[in-house]
Amino acid sequence: MNKVSLGHSGLLVTPICLGSMTFGEQVGEADAHAILSHSLARGVNFIDTAEMYSVPVRAETYGATETIIGRWLAKNPGARQQLVLATKVAGPSRGTSWVRTGKGMTAADIVASCEGSLRRLQTDVIDLYQIHWPERHVPAFGNLYYDPVRETSATPIREQLDTLAGLVKAGKVRAIGLSNETPYGVHEFVRLAEQHGLPRVATVQNPYCLINRTWENGLDETCHRLGVSLLAYSPLGFGLLTGKYDQGGATGPSAPRGARITVYESMRKQRWGRAEALLAARRYNALARANGLTPTQMALAFCYTKWQVSSTIIGVTSVAQLDENLNAWGTTLSPEVLQGIDAIRWEIRDPAL
């Protein structure tokens, strides 16, 4: 895998990134360390985490994922220099009052979160520091529409950007990014950075997969023209695009044991747990099998080969799963398969938006 540049940041990363939100909930520390070591041995130099992980979020596991990664880095002192390490500051509370209690995300909030992440990760610098979700009210996480009546913004983007600039100047952060953002948000962060000589956002981390291609509804042009890189998360649609839910669904005696949507009721209530999302995934999975591919191969190859994607974030629960995802690199999709994918999307759009 040739490395790619993230925006204008100078950070060079592999086009596959190891996501870590399962560490500390589905994956114990010993297994997480094995996954981290194997990922590095396979050539992946990019790790993504967040202060609020693991998922599903609970007060008891707040910061657990960063702590697990920090202990692995301490045990493997040579690894840190080989890696680009990304983490996120949580936005205003979304039922996570143990992370943030206020409606805004003040300078003090951002600085305190950064210091906490540095401490848990046992590192002196975060290579890519991202805002996990906008401080503004936005249509995200299953919300269809922007509703100005629900706007409760308390911290202007300029203030957030000034604070992130201070962390960069202090040498605690190398580059900054966004997550779960809109075209307006990306444009405004870039505009203010250019107007006031502040750090430019390098990346946006948003969902992008066969059952959620909302990125292509304007954000692709925005980020292409502004030189901002997409970090695609949930390329397998929370497991729906692996085919493991095709026969037994997410619940009941035939549901896959230990799978996130099966085990965690809170996950079934989200966009990935919708009946429409599962029905759509079954259509894509059948298309893959009809063309001699596994559902996982087709879903990952879709992301791996799209011009819109700089790096695809894969989340795994075992070394075997990690190898399966990495081995899908190099898979190409025929024109017939791509036409089949677009035909399904034309019919069912984005059921897991």
Automatic annotation (TrEMBL):
SUPFAM superfamilies found in the cross-reference section: NAD(P)-linked oxidoreductase
Keyword Secreted tagged: no
Matching Pfam families: Aldo_ket_red
Source organism superkingdom: Bacteria
Keywords, ordered alphabetically: Oxidoreductase
Coiled coil segments of this chain: none
Keyword Lipid metabolism: no
InterPro entries in alphabetical order: AKR (IPR020471), AKR_Detox_Biosynth (IPR050523), NAD(P)_OxRdtase_dom_sf (IPR036812), NADP_OxRdtase_dom (IPR023210)
Domain (NADP-dependent oxidoreductase): residue spans on this chain: 15-344
GO molecular function: oxidoreductase activity
Transmembrane portions of the chain: none
Descriptive protein name: Aldo/keto reductase
